Structure prediction request, 310 residues.
Amino acid sequence: MAINWFPGHMHKAQKEIKEILPQIDVVIEVCDARLPFSSENPMITEIRGDKPLIKILNKSDLADPAVTKIWLDYLESQHNVKAIALTTEQPSVAKNLIHLIRKMVPNKDEEGKQINAMIMGIPNVGKSTLLNTLVGKAKAKVGNEPAVTKGQQRIRLEEGLYLFDTPGMLWPKIYNENSGYRLAVSGAVKDTAFDHDDIAYFAADYLLKNYPKRLMDRYELDELPEHEEDLIEAIGRRRGCVKSGGRVDLYKASVILINEIRDKTLGPISFELPDIVVAENLHFAELEEKRIAAREAKKTARGRGRKNKR
Prediction:
């Protein structure tokens, strides 16, 4: 599955971020706690260099707490990284972020110098809502659709501490195909960018393997289906998504599953673990290398063909 959504304003935002970065002391990246890897932007790792990074796993109330703990430990094992889990339902916890920013650059804080932090994140991870909590009033536009914030903002958090807000950015190409599916399930991309049936089948397969009891309880299933398509059909029958002739409307059933994942009806769910992601990345990197090698081989063959015709 490919996600083709990299609007012009995102290209502009990327350029502006690179220009302002030399003035930044601390980078803050907001990720979705349900998919910490898939919701991080690889461009941030590339452009921040060695600057201190605060990794925020937001919407942690939607994620499996045991899995979130694993991610926090994994992220904090990396150089110059502090990781915290947040939920917008706990504004007092979010406000502790101001203290953490100062703690990441102790020299500047002790000398009373101005500290500049930059907050970044892909669309729809709750960045603007978090920002409003920090500021105490609606400085950033908030919405339930991706790409609400379109321009860079400079906000004074308190004396000597400024926060640069940036638009949510996706990146041109997602190499790990499973990351694309996870982003779609979480709502990080607009629903028009993918096929609900396709995404629901991916989610159903994952839930069957990792959260079978949740499925049994929620959809009152007498037995657990073996395959994802059977689960979607079972959900459709339980929810009355039946067409004339007794056929299940798979699209309606798919929408029900996706919505109940997003609104926590199915309970807190995490869609990836560090070891799973490492294995996937190796697999998709090998596939990408093979695709590049195949393209180069074709180019070489075409070049030889033209030379032989002369």
Observations:
- The first strand starts at residue 26 and ends at 32.
- Residues 195-262 form a domain with the Conserved Hypothetical Protein Ylqf; Chain: A; domain 2 fold (CATH 1.10.1580.10).
- The chain has two domains: 14-165, 195-262.
